[in-house]
């Protein structure tokens, strides 16, 4: 019988041999930071920077999976994404903590600026500042799109789905609900279990997410 001691930290992580789960305080800190500095709608870019690159709580594939789920559900993408990531890290408590962190900074700042806006909204400098912030946010979102979706540009059916979705939404202005109902089944069929494309796209679960994946499968 082995006398080796289990590593200190989270019991579940110790049993699986992976790193300990992040604390709720750390989750709150990360999402508070992302919510506090993501001016102009670039919160997804900041979330990826902190969650994938800084904390390494998941990899790009898992972040993209969570983002895809978030975009197909009602509500704000950032809030939905916080729920998914928080839940995978620490369950319901993690989801609630992540949502609180992502929402609090914006709520406080917007309420404060709303009071000051009435007296300053005709100031041309403020107007130009907001235009610049919007441009920077567009650049951030474009960067994240290319970083996360560059693999999809190497597979012809993926490029076709991407171009078709962009055309019907941006050019034809068709409702996103209709697009999901029509183009969605095509993508599901391409990635159906047992297909060649599906077998190539199954990522190795990140250590922080591994236990959550196991629970969801069972």
Number of helices: 10
Query: CA-to-CA gap between the ends?
Result: 30 Å
The total domain count is 1
Share of helix among residues?
over 70%
Using the CA coordinates, give the radius of gyration.
20 Å
Q: Flag low-confidence runs.
A: 1-18, 213-218
Q: What form results from the Cα inertia axes?
A: globular
Q: Biggest sheet, open or closed, and with what strands and sense?
A: none
**What is the H-and-E element order?**
HHHHHHHHHH
- Number of separate strands: 0
Oligomer: single chain
Description:
The protein is mainly alpha-helical and 218 residues long. The chain has one domain. It is 74% helix and 0% strand. It is built from ten helices and no strands. The protein has helices at 11-16, 24-37, 43-54, 60-71, 77-120, 124-149, 156-171, 176-190, 196-200, 207-217. Helix 2 (24-37) packs antiparallel against helix 3. The chain starts with 10 loop residues before the first helix and ends with a helix.
